[in-house]
Amino acid sequence: MQVDFHAPYKDRVRQALSDPNLRSAVSRATDRMSDARHTSMDSIEGQKLRTQVRQMKEHVLRNWPEYLEQLETNLTSNGCTVHWAEGIEDAQAIVKDIALQNSAKLIVKSKSMATEEIHLNHAMEEAGLRVVETDLGEYIIQLADEPPSHIVAPVIHKRLEEIAEVFQEKLDMPPTREPTKMTSLARARLRQEFFAATMGISGCNFAIAETGTICIVTNEGNGRMVSSMPRVYVAVMGIEKLVPTVEDAYLQLQALCRSATGQNLTVYCSMTSGPRQEGDVDGPEQVHVVLLDNGRSRMFARGYGEALMCIRCGACLNACPVYQEIGGHAYGSTYNGPIGAVITPALAPEIGQFKELPHATSLCGACREVCPVKIDLPRLLLDLRSDLVQQGVSPKSEAWGIKSYASLMSSRRTYESLGKMASIGSNVYAGLSGGNIKFMPPPLNGWTAYRDFAPFAPKSFRHWWRQRKKLRGQT
Amino acid sequence: MSVRDTILSRLKATLNQPDLPFPPQDSDPLTQAERMTVTHAPGDRWAQAERFAQELNAVKGSCELLETETEARLSIISRLQLWQEEEQSARKTANAERAGDWDVLCWPLHQLQIESLPLILKEMGFKLIEPTDLHDPEQRERIRSIRAGITTVEAAFASTGSFVVGGRGANARAASLTPFRHLVVIPFSKLFATGEDWLAQMRFAGQLDAFVRQSRNLSIVTGPSKSADLEGILTMGVHGPKVVHAILFDDVHE
Ligand code: SF4
Fold it and tell me: Is the ipTM above a cut-off of 0.90?
C-alpha cells in the first residue's frame, strides 16, 4: 500500500504503519546505513571530526553575509552567473528563464533536495520542458511518480520486486529481478539523455567561498555527467551551504560521506569553479548558480540557526525510531526524519503550517548522538513545540508537558524510573482499550492531539539501546 | 532593494541581535594548524602505494604496482589488449569484432611520460581518440560507444585509494567518465599519503587557489561508479566506469 501524500498527517502515519513491506524495507536499509556509519566513524577520531565540522559551520554562520559575498565575488570572477532567489516562485522563474534562453528542451538532473524544495521539476514540465532525474533512485521514483522518501536514499521505501514492476511497466523491461540487468538498462537509457540534453541541473553539497567552487557528491557519476556534458549547467544551492576554504570542504566531505553511507569518500566529488574556456575539450559553456533563501534567513532570525549547519547526511533519519517505523512519506514534507521535523516548520512562513511535525519524534536523542555537526535536534524540537504553544497553535497542556518533559530529560534516573512506571501503566490501559491509546485526559491530551499514544514498550529505549550496543560488543 | 540585498541585510540584522541564541559570538574559524587529518597512510612511497592498492581494491577497483616505466608500458598495453578481448568474447555472435573496439578515449598520452607508448599502441592497432571539442555533434557522437579510457591524474591519495582528475585544455573530462572502463596511470611522484597532505603542499606553495579555479572542474574519484538504490544491493557502473584499474609506477626511485 502507498502512503497518500495529501491525506492528513495522522492518516498518513496510519497508512505507513499498516504497510509491513514498507516498514521492513525502511528498517532494514536504515539499520544497514547506521551500522556502516558507526563502523566508519569508529575507525577514525570521529568525535574530533564532529567537533571540528561544527566549529567550522558555526564560524560560517556567524560570518554568513561575508562568506556569501565572498562566494558571489569569486564565482563571478570565475565566469559563473550568480542569481539570488527569495522563494519558490522566483527560483523556479530563474531556472525556467535560463532554459528558455538556451532553447533547452531536455534537462538532465542529479539528485538535489533544494530543487525538491522548490518543486522545480513540476514547474519546468508545466513550461513544456522535459526533466529527467538521473540518480538511479530518483529515476525510479520519477517513473513511479512519487517524491523521495530519504535525503540520501530516495527510493529506500521500495523493494526490488516493486522497482522491477516499475521498470517493466515504464521502460518495457523484460521480466527480471536481476539488479545488474536493471542497472544496465537504466545506464543505457540515461546515457541517451546525457548526450542529448542541453542543460544539466544539480544541487550543491557545499560551495567553497575562497575559490568560488560548487561541489557535488555522487556515487553513480551522474553529478559529474550533469555538470560536464550539457552546454549549460545550473546549480541550485541553499544559501547556508558554505565552507570557507578548500581544506574545510575536504573535511566536511569526509564527515558527510562517513555519516551518510559509511564510505571514506563517495566515488565522486565533483568540484566546478567555472565554465569551459577556449581550448577546453568539454565542460559547460555557461555555469549558473542560484542562491536560494526560501525561508533560511527567516529561520535564522527565528532562532533556529543551529539547524542551518545541517549537511544533509541523513544519519538522523537512519537513527530515528520514528522514521524507521513510518518512513519518509508519512511526514508529508520535502525534508523528513528529525531534521525535517525541525526545518520544515522553521523554514515555513508560519511555523504552525506544519504543527504536527515537531511531534513526529520520540525525543530519544539518538539523532543528536549521530549528527556529524552535533546539532541538538531534540532541543530544537522542544523549542518548536513551545513556540507553537506560545503562538496558540498547540494546546496549553502541551506547554505543561514540555516543561515536565524537559525536567524529566534533565535527570536520567527520574526519567528511567518514571519510564518503567509508564510502561506498566500504559500497557495495562492499552490492554483494556484494545491497542493504542487514542485519547488521554488533560494534560496528557497534548500528546494525543497529534498522535495515538502507543503503550510504552515493555523495555525502555535506553534499555534496548544498551542491549543493542552490548550485542555489538561496545560499552 | 534587490533580492540579494534584502537577503543579506536580513542576515546582517539577525546577526546584530544581542540575544541571538545561535551562533555563538566567538566563533573562530578552524585554522590550518588545528584542522585534523582524517585518515593516515604512514610509511615510504612503496608503503603508500600498497595502501592505495588496498583501499582501491576495497571499493572494487583494481591496481598494479610497478617498479619501472618500462613495466608500466607493458602493463598498459596488455591491460588494453585484455579488455579488448573481453569485450569481444562477451558478445555471443561469431565474428564479434566491431570497428570501435580498438578506440581508446584518452588525454594526450605524452603526459604519462612513458616513452613511445602512443607509438606502440598505434602500431598494435589501437586508435587513440583525443577529441578537441565535445560540443561538436560529430565528435560527441564519436566518443559515445568508446569502451575504454586512459588518463593520468593531478594527484592520488594513498589513505583512501582516491585520485583527482582535472578538466581543462586537452584533458577531456569524458575520458575518465563516459567509457565503461577507465585505466588510470599514476606515477609515484603524484602519490600523496592523504588528501590533506596534498592540499597542504599546494597551499604552502601558494598554488591552491589558482589551481582550483583554473581547473574549471576537479573530480576526486574513489573507485568505480556504483549504486545501492536497488534495495541496498550493490551494483556497479551506473553512469561512470564500471571498471577502474590503476597502474602505479615508481618514477621517483628514492
Ligand atoms: S541534522 Fe545532522 S544527522 Fe541529520 S541530516 Fe543534518 S547533518 Fe545529518
Answer: yes
